[in-house]
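ok so i was messing around last nite and threw this chain in just to see what happens. nothing serious, just curious
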Amino acid sequence: MPEVQNPEPPQHNAVDTTEELKKSAYYTAIYDAYMTTTMEADKSILAVSAGGVGLLVTLLALYQVKTTGDIAVYMIALGFFVVSIVSSLFIFKRNHIVLMKILMGGAQKDTILTILDYLNISCCILGILTTIYIGRSTAMQKLSAKPATEVEKAVKQVQINTVNGNVIIQRFQNFTSLKGEKKNGKRGRHQ
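result:
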């Protein structure tokens, strides 16, 4: 009977081990870059949305809102940004859960996270577009406002000139005499 030799375990040579390590390091680097990019994108959207809320509140405080339509547009824009902020916070929480599942050997794809990502990006973009519309309409209102006439400007200047609460100019004609102009060889009279 022929002798049966125990087969020797296959030996891995150094080249195979090096290739496996390179593939593992490459996969790790790609996965790390993907996660970092995704998290940075979520952080950026959160920052833009928070800035959008601040901008809208500032615009609302500085400029007069004349119609209920204007108020509705402001509220819609604020709503988009608030939804984007809230979905960003849920994304951060959900990312934690998904990473824990991956470490435990679970599924890597999460449909809730996909929906939250879509909601986050779309609400942020809609908030930006609505804010651009608000800025455009505010600028158009400022440009279409009629400028004050020369008389209105002069009256405003007359009302500003007071001393200790007493008006020192009683008539518009006396206003020119205060600036040093002479009337009939005399300085204007003021009290």
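not much to say yet. Strands lie at 162-163, 166-167, 182-183, 186-187.
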